[in-house]
Amino acid sequence: MLERATALVNEAIRGGLSVTTAEMPIDEAVASGAIADFGEKYGDTVRVVRIGDGGEAAGSEDAETVRFHELLRAGELCGGTHAGNTAELQAFTIVRESGVGAGTRRVEALAANAAYEWHAERSQMLCELAASLRVPVPGLPARVAKLVAENKELRKASKASQQTSAGSAAVSVGSGGRRLVVHNGGDAEMAALRGTATQAAQAEPDATHIVVGGGHLVVSAGTGAELAAGDVVRACVGAVGGKGGGSEAFAQGALAGSPAAHVEQVCGWAREFVA
Q1: In this structure, are residues 251 and 244 in contact, taking their beta carbons and an 8 Å threshold?
Q2: What's the CA dihedral at 113, 126, 9, 28 to 10 degrees?
Q3: Domain covering 166-273: architecture
Q4: How far is 234 from 239, CA to CA, in rounded Å?
Q5: Comparing C-alpha atoms, which of 202, 224, 198 is closest to residue 211?
Q6: CA–CA gap between residue 198 and residue 211 (Å, rounded)
Q7: How far apart are CA 133 and CA 143, in angstroms?
Q8: Rounded to whole angstroms, how far apart are CA atoms 223 and 127?
């Protein structure tokens, strides 16, 4: 849509259409088909700007072209300064589009030297980007698409690696449904800690699993565990330092002090908790 609008305006610029103005009563202007901006307030006498003589689209079978020139000829109520001929605008390009209300869009555009400079700047950007990626400009879309896909795969691999590293058990204490399993989460992010805790509880449903890493702990209780996750988090942070909470099945918290000491501290607490 924007590309089509840009093409129609540039076609009118190349056509060198005359721009005429006339002052008339506002009722007469509106009755003649001139477009009024509903957000503006007008006096009794208004200035109407029209472009072309109405014959520019004669013989055209393109409905959009015909309608475009009809609007140009119908005119607009406007008090601003205008070119005497569309050719004076030299070039036109839309640089921004935004919504201003239901079913209404606002476009911002540049003309003449500003339009040429805008395109020159972006052309330079494309050349520099192509040079940095070592591809010709036409090859940029494919190269960028490949980089995006590779980045997505790397992020997936990194997430899987974090979950794997967070899965190593540091200690398992207690017995039966009162068993606590503490896992060393290393520097994994919270998403990885949560995933590891959930997977561990599914793999060993008779225990309550604690994953410690990056200054946090995540607790997930298996379906056969007797120790509720929320109770475990609250007791742990109360003894080690920090804050947290949650439900019977899942809870999380933040630990105070140095993350390097958290796994050992939680392991020591777990031994005493189920003793």
Answers
A1: yes
A2: -70
A3: Roll (3.10)
A4: 9
A5: 198
A6: 10
A7: 8
A8: 59
Cβ-count burial 11-48 (b if 16+ within 10 Å, e if not): bbbeeebebeeeebebeebbeeebeeeeeeeeeeebbb
Q: Name the residue with tokens 């079978």.
A: 61
Q: Which amino acid is at 269?
A: W
Dihedral of CA 253/259/261/267: which sign?
Answer: positive
Tokens 């309608």 correspond to what residue?
Answer: 67
Bridge partners (DSSP) listed for residue 221: 208
* DSSP sequence for the chain: -HHHHHHHHHHHHHTT-BEEEEEEEHHHHHHTT-B--TTS---SEEEEEEES-S-TTTT---HHHHHHHHHHHH-EE--S---SBGGGG--EEEEEEEEEETTEEEEEEEEHHHHHHHHHHHHHHHHHHHHHHTS-GGGHHHHHHHHHHHHHHHHHHHHHHHHHHTTEEEEEES-GGGEEEEEEEET--HHHHHHHHHHHHHHSTTEEEEEEETTEEEEEE-TT-SS-HHHHHHHHHHHHSEEEEE-SSEEEEEE-S-HHHHHHHHHHHHHHHT-
Task: Please give the chain's pLDDT, 275 residues, in tens.
Answer: 889 989 999 999 998 999 988 899 988 988 888 888 766 788 889 888 888 876 766 667 788 888 887 888 888 888 776 788 999 999 999 999 888 777 788 889 999 999 999 999 999 999 999 999 999 999 999 999 999 999 888 877 766 655 555 455 668 999 888 999 999 988 888 888 998 899 999 999 999 999 999 899 999 999 999 999 999 999 999 999 999 999 999 999 999 999 889 999 999 999 999 98
